[in-house]
C-alpha cells in the first residue's frame, strides 16, 4: 500500500510542477503585458501633450498670419527687429530680454519680403502667448520658417538668438529635414534621434510639426523634450528580477540598463545589445495577438508596447528562471507534503490497528485461554458498541454459564458416593450435563482459533460496517415502515384501498420516498468528498505547524529569509481570502543566532494585522511589501509596509499598549506581546504612518549575530 501511495505522490508532484509552471508562466506573461501597457501609457503622456500643443499652436499661428494687416506687420517688424552689421536680423538689443521675450534670428543672406515679415510677426505674437504656458512641461518652444529663419522662446538660454553666428544654418538639422514635404508627406509630428543638448548637457529629443497653408509649407513648431526622467524611470522602476528597454522601430536604443549611450558605436557591449534587440524586433513581427512572448535563445520573457506619438517601443524583459524556480518550489512543497501525509497516514493506521483491533483481540485471546484453564472470572470491555464489544459480551455470558455448570458439577460430585445407588438416574442426567459442559469447553477452544482468523479481517469489516451504519442511520427508513403498516392494515381490501383518495397517493409517495433515499445517499457521498478535500488542506497547515511544535530553544541558528516565508505560509489562507498581493525584497543573509519562535510569533502577528488593515482598500490595490536587509554591522531590519487604513498621529504612541485595538473583534494583545518579544530578543519594534488612509510601516530590528563556521 505504501508503494502505491508513493507512486501517486510522485505523479502528483510531476503534474503539480507542470501545472504550476504553466500557471506561473501565464501569470508572468499577463503581469508583463499589464506592466508594459501601463508604463507605455504613462510614459507617452509627454509626447502626446507635445502633439496636442503643436496642433493648438499651428491653428493659432495660421489664424494670426491670415488676420494681420500688412501695414501693422511692417510697423511692428521695424519696432521689434533690426538688421545688424553682420548682415543678420535679430531683436533690437535695447528692448530685448530673452527671459520674457521671444528671440528672432534671420541668417545673413536670407531675403526678407512681406510674406516672411507677416509670418515672423505672427509667429512672434503667438509664441509670446503660448511659450510661457508650454514652459511648464517643455524646456523651450521654437518656430522655423521654410526659408530657415526662426523664432525661439528659451528662458534657460535667453541670449541664444543674439549669440548665434550670422551664417548659422539649420538646413541639415534632423528636425528641419523631417518637416519638409518630401520627407514628411503625411504632415505629421516627427521625432528626432536622441542627442545630448550642448547647453544643459542632458539627453533630449525634438518634436516638430509642420504647418501648411493653402498647400504651401510655411513654418514648423518644435519642442525640446528632456529624457532624463524618462530614462531614470525606465532603468530604475521595473518588476522584480526584470529590466526595461526603450528603442525605436529602426533599432536605435533610447534607454537600456547595460548600454551607456556615451559608448562608441563600435564597442562590443553596444553590439551585443543591438543583436539582442534585433532578436526582440524579429520576434515582435511574428507574435500572434499578444504583447508578451518568449525568447528561448536568451532564456527570457519579453513584453512590448508602442508609445503612441514617438513610435518608440517600451519593453520589459524578465528571465525565464524566475518562473521555473516558483514551479520547482511548489513541486518540492507538494512532494514534502505528500511524504508527510504518507507517514502520518501510516502512523494513524498503525495506531488504530493497535488500539482498536490488536489490543482487544489479544485480551479476548488471553481470556479464552483462562476460560479453558478453568478461570471464569474475566475482565473484558463490554461497553463498546461494535463487533468486538458484542463478542466480549458473548464471552462474558459463556463464561458465566460455564462457571454455573462447574459449580453444579462440584456440588454433585461431593454427594456422589452417598447417592450412587439411589441417584443413578440423577447421575445419568449429570453425565449428560457433563457431556454438554465438555462440548461447551471444546467450543471455547475452537473459538480461540476462530478469533485468530477473525482478527485478520476485522479491520476491513469494522471500517465497512461503520460506513454502512452511518449511511443507513441517516436514511429516513421509518417512512418505509409507515407504508408497510398502512398496507398491512388494509391487506384484506388492498385493491379498493389503492383506488380511494389516500391509496392513490401511495405509489407517488413510494416514488418520492425512493428518490429521497437516493438524494440522501448522494448527500453522504458529497459529504465524504468534502471531508477528503478538507483533509488535504488540513495536512498543509499541519505540516507548517509541526515544524514549530518542538520545545523552543533560547538561541538557535535561523535563516531569516526562510522564517519570513514561513510566517507568510502560516497566514497564506487569510492572505488568499483577502486577495492581498505580496512584494518581497529579501536580502540573502547567513544564519543568525536568535530565538526562532519569538521571532516567528512577531512576524505572524504583523502579517495578520496588515491583512486586516487593508479590508477597506479595493481588492486590486491591496499590497503588502516585506523587506529584509542588513541595517548596520550589528543590526538586521525587517520592514512590513501595507497600503491599508493607516494610523492617526495620536494613536502612534498607544499602538503597542496592552488592550489597545482599532478592530471591533480585536483583543489588543498581538502588538503588545510582539513589542515585548522584540525587547526580549534585544531589539525594537517601531511603527510609522503618514496618517489615516496612507498605510503603515512596522519596522523590527534585532541584533545581528551570524553563526560562526564550525559552531
In short:
With 711 residues, the protein is α+β, with helices and mostly antiparallel strands.
Tell me, briefly, the overall form: elongated
The largest sheet is:
9 strands, antiparallel
Q: How many domains, as an integer?
A: 4
Give the helix level as a range of percent: 40-55%
Classified in CATH, the superfamily of the largest domain is PAS domain
Q: What is the typical, i.e. mean, pLDDT?
A: 78
Which CATH-level-2 architecture of the largest domain?
A: 2-Layer Sandwich
Give the class from helix and strand content and strand pairing. alpha+beta
Low-confidence runs of at least 5 consecutive residues: 260-267, 441-465
So how many helices?
Answer: 19
CATH first level of the largest domain: which class?
Answer: Alpha Beta
Protein model, in words:
Residues 449-706 form the Histidine kinase domain. It is an enzyme of class 2 (transferase). With 711 residues, the protein is α+β, with helices and mostly antiparallel strands. The chain folds into 4 domains: 41-228, PAS domain (Beta-Lactamase, 2-Layer Sandwich), CATH 3.30.450.20; 230-319, Beta-Lactamase, CATH 3.30.450; 415-550, no CATH class; 556-703, 2-Layer Sandwich (Heat Shock Protein 90). It is 52% helix and 16% strand. The protein contains 19 helices and 21 strands. It has helices at 2-43, 45-67, 70-80, 114-134, 160-163, 174-177, 228-236, 268-286, 321-372, 387-414, 424-474, 478-489, 494-497, 501-504, 506-547, 560-570, 572-578, 596-613, 670-680; strands spanning 81-83, 89-91, 103-106, 140-145, 150-153, 190-191, 195-196, 203-213, 216-226, 243-247, 253-255, 292-295, 300-307, 312-319, 556-558, 581-586, 592-594, 623-632, 635-642, 684-688, 696-703. The strands form 4 sheets. Strands 1, 2, 3, 4, 5, 6, 7, 8 and 9 form a 9-stranded antiparallel sheet that branches. Strands 11-10-14-13-12 form a 5-stranded antiparallel sheet, sandwiched between helices. A hairpin with a 4-residue loop joins β4 and β5. α1 packs antiparallel against α9 (321-372), α2 packs antiparallel against α4 and α3 packs across α4. The radius of gyration is 46 Å and the shape is elongated.
Amino acid at each position: 500500500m505504501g508503494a502505491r501511495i508513493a507512486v501517486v505522490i510522485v505523479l502528483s508532484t510531476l503534474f503539480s510542477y507542470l501545472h504550476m509552471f504553466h500557471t506561473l508562466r501565464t501569470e508572468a506573461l499577463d503581469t508583463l503585458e499589464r506592466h508594459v501597457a501601463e508604463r507605455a501609457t504613462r510614459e507617452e503622456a509627454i509626447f502626446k501633450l507635445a502633439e496636442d500643443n503643436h496642433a493648438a499652436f499651428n491653428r493659432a499661428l495660421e489664424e494670426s498670419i491670415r488676420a494681420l494687416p500688412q501695414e501693422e506687420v511692417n510697423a511692428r517688424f521695424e519696432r521689434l527687429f533690426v538688421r545688424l552689421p553682420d548682415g543678420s536680423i535679430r531683436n533690437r538689443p535695447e528692448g530685448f530680454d530673452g527671459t520674457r521675450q521671444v528671440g528672432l534670428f534671420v541668417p545673413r543672406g536670407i531675403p526678407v519680403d512681406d510674406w516672411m515679415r507677416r509670418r515672423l510677426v505672427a509667429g512672434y505674437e503667438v509664441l509670446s502667448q503660448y511659450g510661457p504656458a508650454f514652459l511648464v512641461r517643455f524646456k523651450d518652444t521654437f518656430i522655423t520658417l521654410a526659408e530657415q529663419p526662426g523664432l525661439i522662446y528659451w528662458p534657460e538660454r535667453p541670449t541664444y538668438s543674439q549669440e548665434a553666428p550670422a551664417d548659422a544654418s539649420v538646413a541639415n538639422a534632423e528636425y528641419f529635414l523631417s518637416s519638409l514635404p518630401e520627407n514628411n508627406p503625411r504632415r505629421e509630428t516627427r521625432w528626432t534621434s536622441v542627442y545630448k543638448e550642448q547647453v544643459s548637457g542632458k539627453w533630449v529629443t525634438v518634436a516638430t510639426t509642420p504647418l501648411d497653408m493653402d498647400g504651401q509649407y510655411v513654418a514648423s513648431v518644435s519642442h525640446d523634450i528632456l529624457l532624463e526622467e524618462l530614462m531614470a524611470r525606465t532603468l530604475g522602476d521595473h518588476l522584480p528580477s526584470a529590466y526595461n528597454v526603450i528603442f525605436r522601430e529602426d533599432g536605435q536604443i533610447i534607454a537600456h540598463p547595460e548600454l551607456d549611450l556615451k559608448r562608441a558605436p563600435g564597442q562590443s557591449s553596444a553590439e551585443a545589445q543591438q543583436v539582442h534587440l534585433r532578436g526582440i524586433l524579429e520576434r515582435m513581427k511574428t507574435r500572434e495577438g499578444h504583447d508578451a512572448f518568449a525568447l528561448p535563445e536568451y532564456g527570457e520573457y519579453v513584453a512590448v508596447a508602442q508609445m503612441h506619438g514617438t513610435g518608440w517601443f517600451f519593453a520589459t524583459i524578465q528571465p525565464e528562471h524566475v518562473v521555473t524556480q516558483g514551479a520547482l518550489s511548489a513541486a518540492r512543497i507538494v512532494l514534502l507534503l505528500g511524504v508527510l501525509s504518507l507517514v502520518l497516514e501510516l502512523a494513524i493506521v498503525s495506531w488504530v490497528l493497535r488500539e482498536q483491533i490488536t489490543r482487544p483481540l489479544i485480551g479476548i485471546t488471553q481470556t479464552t485461554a483462562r476460560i479453558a484453564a478453568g478461570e471464569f472470572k474475566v475482565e473484558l470491555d463490554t461497553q463498546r458498541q461494535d463487533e468486538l464489544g458484542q463478542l466480549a459480551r458473548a464471552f462474558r455470558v459463556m463464561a458465566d454459564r460455564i462457571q454455573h455448570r462447574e459449580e453444579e458439577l462440584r456440588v454433585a460430585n461431593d454427594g456422589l458416593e452417598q447417592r450412587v445407588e439411589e441417584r443413578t438416574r440423577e447421575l445419568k442426567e449429570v453425565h449428560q450435563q457433563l457431556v454438554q459442559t465438555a462440548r461447551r469447553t471444546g467450543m471455547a477452544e475452537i473459538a480461540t482459533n476462530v478469533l485468530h482468523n477473525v482478527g485478520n479481517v476485522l479491520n476491513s469489516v469494522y471500517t465497512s460496517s461503520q460506513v454502512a451504519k452511518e449511511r443507513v442511520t441517516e436514511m429516513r427508513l421509518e417512512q418505509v415502515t409507515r407504508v408497510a403498516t398502512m398496507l398491512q392494515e388494509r391487506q384484506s381490501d388492498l385493491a379498493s384501498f389503492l383506488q380511494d383518495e389516500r391509496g392513490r397517493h401511495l405509489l407517488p409517495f413510494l416514488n418520492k420516498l425512493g428518490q429521497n433515499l437516493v438524494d440522501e445517499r448522494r448527500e453522504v457521498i458529497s459529504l465524504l468528498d468534502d471531508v477528503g478535500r478538507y483533509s488535504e488542506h488540513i495536512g498543509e497547515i499541519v505540516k507548517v505547524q509541526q515544524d514549530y511544535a518542538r520545545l523552543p530553544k533560547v538561541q538557535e541558528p535561523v535563516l531569516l529569509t526562510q522564517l519570513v516565508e514561513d510566517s507568510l505560509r502560516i497566514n497564506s489562507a487569510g492572505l488568499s481570502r483577502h486577495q492581498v498581493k505580496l512584494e518581497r525584497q529579501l536580502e540573502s543573509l547567513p544564519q543568525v543566532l536568535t530565538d526562532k519562535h519569538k521571532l516567528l510569533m512577531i512576524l505572524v502577528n504583523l502579517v495578520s494585522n496588515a491583512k486586516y488593515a487593508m479590508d477597506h482598500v479595493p481588492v486590486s490595490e491591496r499590497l503588502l511589501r516585506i523587506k529584509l536587509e542588513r541595517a548596520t554591522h550589528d543590526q538586521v531590519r525587517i520592514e512590513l509596509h501595507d497600503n491599508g487604513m493607516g494610523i492617526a498621529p495620536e494613536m502612534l504612541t498607544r499602538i503597542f499598549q496592552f488592550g489597545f485595538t482599532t478592530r471591533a473583534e480585536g483583543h489588543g494583545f498581538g502588538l503588545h506581546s510582539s513589542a515585548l518579544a522584540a525587547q526580549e530578543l534585544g531589539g525594537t519594534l517601531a511603527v510609522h504612518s503618514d496618517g489615516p488612509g496612507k498605510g503603515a510601516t512596522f519596522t523590527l530590528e534585532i541584533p545581528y549575530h551570524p553563526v560562526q563556521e564550525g559552531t
